[in-house]
Amino acid sequence: MDNTNHQPNSILPARPGSDATLNQEGFVHNETYGEPNANTVDVEAAIEEFHEMKRELSRISRHSNLTTLDKAGEEGRVSEEEFDLNRFLQGMSYEDTKAGKKPKHLGLVFKNLAVEGVGADAHTILNVITGLLSLVQPWKLFNFGLGGSTKTILHPLSGFVKDGEMLLVLGRPGAGTTTLLKVLANMRSGYKNIKGDVSYGGIDSATFAKHYRGQVIYNEEEDQHYPTLTTKETLQFALRTKTPGNRLPDETKEVFVNKLIYMLGNMLGLSKKMDTLVGDSVVRGLSGGERKRLSIAEAMTTQSSINLWDGATRGLDAVSALDYVRSLRVMTDVSRNTTVSTLYQASSSMFALYDKVLVLDSGYCVYFGPVELAKDYFESLGFYRSPRKSIPDFLTGISNPLEREIKPGFTAPESAAELHQRYVESDIYKEMMKELAAYEDQVLEEKPSDLFKKAVYEEHQKLAPKKDPYTVSFYQQVKALTIRNFQLLSRSHESLISRYGTVLIIAFLLGSCFYKMPLNAEGAVSRAGAICFTIINIGFISHSELVNIMLGRPILEKHKHYAMYRPAAYYLSQVVVDLPLIIAQVILYQLITYFLMGLQLNAGRFFTFFLVLVVMSLAMNGFFRFFGLLTNTFMLANLVACVMFIYAFLYMGYYIYYNAMHPWFFWIHWIYPLAYAYKALIINEMGGQVYACDGPGSTVPYGAGYDDWSHMICSMSGGKPGESFVLGDDYLRSVLGIEPTWLWSVNIVMLIVWFLFFTGINILLIEKFQLGSSGSSTKLYLPGKAPKPRTPEEEKERLERQLQVTEKMDQVSTGTTFSWQHINYTVPVKGGSFQILNDVSGIVKPGHLTALMGSSGAGKTTLLDVLAKRKTIGKVEGRTYLNSEVLMSDFERITGYVEQMDVHQPADTVREAMRFSAYLRQDPSVPKSEKDIYVEQIIQLLEMEDIADAQVGDPSTGNGISIEERKRLTIAMELVAKPKLIFLDEPTSGLDSQSSYNIIRFLRKLADAGWPVVCTIHQPSAILFEYFDHLHLLVRGGRTAYCGEIGQDAKIMIDYFESNGGPKYASDANPAEYILDVVASGNVSSKNWADVWANSANAKALEEELEAIHNNVDRNPSRKALTYATPFWTQLYLVFKRMSLVYWRSSGYNLGRFLTIASLSLFIGFTFWKLSYSFTDIQYRVLLMFGSMPLAYMMITMGQPKFMGERVFFRREYASRFYGWVPYAISAILVEIPYICFLCLLFMVGIYWTVGLTETAEASGYYYLMVVLFVLWAVTFGFILGGLTENPYIAAVLTPLAFTTVFMFAGVLQTQFALPRFWSAWMYWLVPFHYVVEGLIVNELETLPIEPSSNDLLKFTPPGNQTCGEYMASFFSSGGSGYLVDPSSTTLCEYSTYSTAKEFYTTTYGWDASHKWQNIGIVCIFCVFNVLVCAALIYWRRKARR
């Protein structure tokens, strides 16, 4: 195949160089807006000079500069001015060719490609009732039998992209652009039906997916990265998994990685950010634009043959976006890649760099052909392009009846189907189909796939399987992942401190609670309890792994698509990292507990104890990860894992002895690793021990005159008549049902087997199951509210209504002036502070629409955060005044702030969310009907009619409105509040040109009506920029380069820059791109535009104006400032109403709780089926009441994530002063109460009558009331744990500490008499579970007799010539409890320790029935205390750290 003839065929005109820019008529001019040596790339010259450069490769030659590259990679930075991407890539290409590396050139062909999805009416919003009904139709959970219509996302279309070509896909949101790219990238899941053929250089899609995944990649709009890795670490990891085996001679892996980092850092302007954390909405790091560049860089590390970029310029400023597309052009030409991308609001300069363009409208292909012919084609149909409109905007606008313009005398096609039909009839279509057929013939003849397969084969490292799509060996994958895991771990200081701090505290608590256990009956019971607690606590800590496995999913799915590593390698790397963490954890725990408890001081037993805990921890990590991998949502995974863990605890062998397990459930004992760990540890401790029976209570009878052991027996279970001791082995066999010889042969071996089993099954799950959502997002509508296709007449009426909205804008009676002067903002960093904003001043007046512009990272979002009073970290200095007054408590309320992050309550529909904002934020004097009308107007303005009744949803789950629609909702939420001052952070980012036009035009109308508006904007077209009248321009370092009027045709602004030495402005250029190019930090400039501004007359005039405001400011305004628009009770009503709706629609959360509680209660009920009044069953009644504990555990672990999730939405709304923290705190608690009452009823119904508890009205009523209060306490306690931290992992780690404290000191497993005095004096009385258990047990047992079974009786022989009554008379007279079954017997005495259940709990636990109702009151006090603490934490954490 000819590798040089890559230009399009005859119908394609020659493409202009990348430094040329299409003017507004589509012609070429070579003017450069910025400095003459701006960072541009001449593509044609690069290709022509290729052979001449063979002798000029010294700068990047492996012979002369490997050291330089190595150093550049090590330092992560290099002078950007020295970097020439074109030359660098040519050098790499030359050296690769010279070394004999085969090229991976593949074209892309798609024929009759059609995609269908589920129609809008197939899914409705779930609530608790519909969720319950769906359980009887489980097939619907897997999208079978949904009914409803089928939606055609893409109608049949055909096309091709040759290697070395770039295809631009244009279309409005909803046109199908993302679907096309995903299907071309072989991401086919999530769609109902895909028809047609996609060929990758002659390789079919199925073969390509199996063997060459990662050679075609899709880069999505959203940026998914680990926020605590640095930029360099992120790229290093990606390159370690993509380092080819056929590198240059003598080129090490390290040099290869550094060479690519050098190139990517300079190409994308990241070289100075290599040591910066990536960051996210919580962790401070890269700016949004820089994070987008990192996503691009990461995708480029794959060195794939076919690249698909979806909205990759979103969040980039115009200059950065153009440089990025230029870089794509160079890489495509030099490396002969195949590139397909979508762009929103693309400029004509970007458009000129592509070979072909495909325009979609409602899934129809309305144009596919050369970029140079596209404008003329649509103009020939009768469409008119205004001189100021860019060609991509013109092409996209064709599909919008509101935007497109028709030439006089023409009848242009209107619908998408008509446009498609006209295109199919055109000469361009016929020519493109001929080219497609010719290209297919060429592919068949030249077989580029053969060379591609050889290249991929050779690219594999030596030990990497050649048939797998992964470049590096499995060992190298695990190694790279392990390094990354340790990097993540090294920055998780809070997580590590909380994990090991929790272990340390639990160890001291447990060790002191079971301090120096004696070798007697009491010590035997305590040993079993201590070992049980050890097992449970280690298991609890493993529960936190569920959080980790769920949080890493999106990144894992992305890397899986990139074929960076096998998911199995990801899982094994987690296990590798587990080992040192667990060893350290067990050592810390064991060194404290082992010696405090007084366990056997034997080296063999000590290390056996250590081994068992390590293997059990590894197995339990796998146990919890199993449920994380088996389910798609954290809530469901948490529910199932909780239930399974509780089952494991109940049948571990401590709570219920193996000998007492019912035959229908005993098998559970054998299928959980906890049971084997418990048995191993208790055998290790009790095996071979001898427990003495001496002292009161240890023998029967005891006291003066009782010293003949032939007529006495140990009261300890397992005791034999005539023996003054009990062997540990006998106790294990007869009481616990544990075989002491099975320590190694069964229990430890089975623990290892369980660890290997969970490792194997989890590897299988992670390899075979798709863990995240894919394909198109599913919209959920209110029943009967799904949109229906409109007729042309209905669509025309809708557009007319939309036009009328902006024309009816009300005039504001009093305008608002907002000024800021000498704003400085510094943030703390390691070793000092860093200044982000530097002496920024400005003003916005009534009627001003101010554009806040600057390159990515200049501080635009930071300035808006500071002005809107959203910053909570760092130091803000300077003056801000509103209407010549100091800012008052109502500032946040009367200010609208459209943030960059789209944070919304997922359960609301779009209309409900907007009404919620309007009701709470508009003046209370405005009637509700008027607010509703205004909401409908905004819905029409932003073209949201079709999603008004759709649930907002969550993009991570695949349900809800799209990313672009969420951005519209973010804007709408602020507009419906009718603020007096509006800040908007990138409101047009990710939107198409018409949506952006609608929003900016509406903002212009707001400004004309008297509202002041400040808006950051990245890539404004010339048409959009005309709507702004003022500009505040920032440069790197957070300094002002211009602040003032723009003027008609931007004349004032342009004159300023030209008069101060800026380049001459081309009359047909976009003024927004001009000013960004002038001050762009990537350009080599002799001028510091911030200094130029500081010394200008304009700056001095602004300073004088701001000083005048400062000198006349009212420092004590007399006007009434309301922090919230509505009174407290209105806030409480609306917030509680919304919260109730959220819970009603949280079917996963509540339905999951209902089902798990019902199954748990029935499980416990049948475990203790129909208990008798025997002493053993009386003890089981005590354990049953104690069994309420798992209920609390479940409520705590489920309440935590729910509370933390809702807090995110509360903070967003609180920041805009929707409502106060008190209404939210009250609502968060109140909304739980009805669900808690129902949950407790389910729990009681499942247990009460299956077990056979006391059936009096008082006893059953008391039981229900106490369980309700206890569950309320548990839920609010879970909220408290969630409120203490921002990190869900830390919250999960804190749970075992809190729960262990509650569980340990309740007085059941270790009675108050057995507790050390230190704990029994105060901790015992501070634990709420003590009062719950005491109340429940005395309520149940106070009237019950004890009817001992034969196994309950202690049996011994009386001395000769004495009856049992005579022999025991002295024992009873001295205060001995219990009674003899037959006092007159002379052969065998049968003794029952207790006669009534009351006697049992009084003597054993020290409890009293008179405390029953007192305990209810005490538990109520604990609940109130929790509520108050929860409210305090809500107040404390009401603002996010930013």
DSSP helix fraction? 40-55%
Mean pLDDT: 83
Q: Approximately how much beta-strand content do the residues carry?
A: 5-15%
Number of helices: 53
Q: How many strand units?
A: 33
Morphology: elongated
Instruction: Let me know the largest β-sheet.
Output: 6 strands, mixed
Low-pLDDT regions: 1-82
Rg over alpha carbons? 37 Å
Structural class of the helix and strand makeup?
Answer: alpha/beta
Q: Give the strand order of the largest sheet, numbering strands 1, 2, ... along the chain.
A: 8-9-10-5-11-12
**Termini separation:** 55 Å
How would you portray this structure in words?
This protein is α/β, with parallel strands linked by helices. Helices cover 50% and strands 11% of the residues. The protein is built from 53 helices and 33 strands. It has a six-stranded mixed beta sheet with strand order 8-9-10-5-11-12, sandwiched between helices. It has a six-stranded mixed beta sheet with strand order 24-27-28-21-29-30, sandwiched between helices. A hairpin with a 2-residue loop joins strand 11 and strand 12. It is elongated, with a radius of gyration of 37 Å. Mean pLDDT is 83; it is low at 1-82.
